[in-house]
Fold Amino acid transporter.
Amino acid sequence: MSSSTGLRRGVVTFWELVFQSLSFTAPGIAALATLSGAVAFAYGSAPLSVVLAALGVASAAYAVYEFSLKVASSGGYYRYIERGFGSRVGAWGGWLYILYAGVAATPFIYLETALAVQYGLSALGINLPSWSWFPLGIADALLALILPYLGIKPSVKYMLWTGMIEIAALMLGGAIIIALSPKPWDPLVFTPAYAPGGWSGVGMGLVFAFTAFAGWGSMTFLGAEAREAHMNIRRGVIAVITLLSVFFIFMIYALIIGWGPSNASSYFQYFIPGITEAVKYGLIPIAILWLVLVTNSGFTDTMAILNAVARDMYTMAKDSALPQWLSMTHPKYKTPHRALILDTIIGLVLFTVLGWTLGPLNAFLITGLWGGVATSIEHFLVNTALPLYSRKRNFFKWAHVVIPTIASILYVFVLYATAVTTAISLPVIVAMAFLIAWFIITGFISWKKPVIPRLEEGEEL
């Protein structure tokens, strides 16, 4: 392979892999803001929705765990799907990940970071101009491009150290809120008791709980750059699912207990209720620290998204599914710099156009819908590809069908629930029209131009 087309191999350590995935989930923003979507439907029973999501994600993680025994690639999920289904569906899987991480997730995180800063400062009594979301999002986009451009090591090192501080500080604050709350222990939050409609409310809360976990598998896209990739990705998947499950279950319990499970119907009215709650208990230093960490959480999430989607595009370009110039890496930094820049531009264009035409909150909803639907289909394809691949390679076992099927059923429910419960509005119509067009156009492209897999040394055992 030419020096201008290769990634830097064997440099990403085990814990750097773990924090690539943890950062993609943006644990700070997810705990303090994203999970408010679960509370909107499950109310005080939101912790139960998060527990069920953790079990579902663990089932989905099994497919990645088993795939990584044989495949460790910069193509991540795209390569898994291509190995299982073949070149045409594989190409569509690659396009699907571009939709999720490139088209949806980048403008989504620009908007979420900007709005979290706006609403978080408002909770502290500092009101920014209504238009401040735009320069805040632009700053996140441009600053987050720097470290991934300069090499995989600078970005994952930064994620590792700041990510540890972020998780520790949020859990410390959560523990203080539990201690100060009127009723620190309430096991009923792990039952449907507080959910309107019982299990139906818990089920809809599950949709948004899954969103909080989204990105847990992004370490797979560093397969070409990881040390002992086949082993460390398998170990990393276990570590990430364990850490995220403990963190999210603890934080949603702390925040629901602190808010009051019977009062949770008002929780989702705040974009970032976690900051509001810290202020409510007089924990101003904690609220300020959390706001700083939430801002950094959006920044590291943006870097993690860029790392993953750029390598998806890089691998698809190597396989002739995208223009060859995207398969070129920086001569000094060995990063897919062209894909990094292209994805940033796409994200900024969508962030600007959607934000100014429909408003930042509607743009947030649209890109969130794109991402939620795309990631559900992507994981469904990965889960289905595993038994197909293991049969081809003669390591099939029935667990390859049974365990991922649990997650696939939950992902199908997410798609169904999104389709039948989302109120019809202009943002929803725009989002669904775009999704249908994307699926049809990229499906046609994938059928007419299937990928030509070009595996690198060590990519498949």
User: Anything to note?
Assistant: DSSP finds 16 helices and no strands in the chain. The domain at 14-448 is CATH 1.20.1740.10 (Amino acid/polyamine transporter I). The chain has a mean pLDDT of 90.
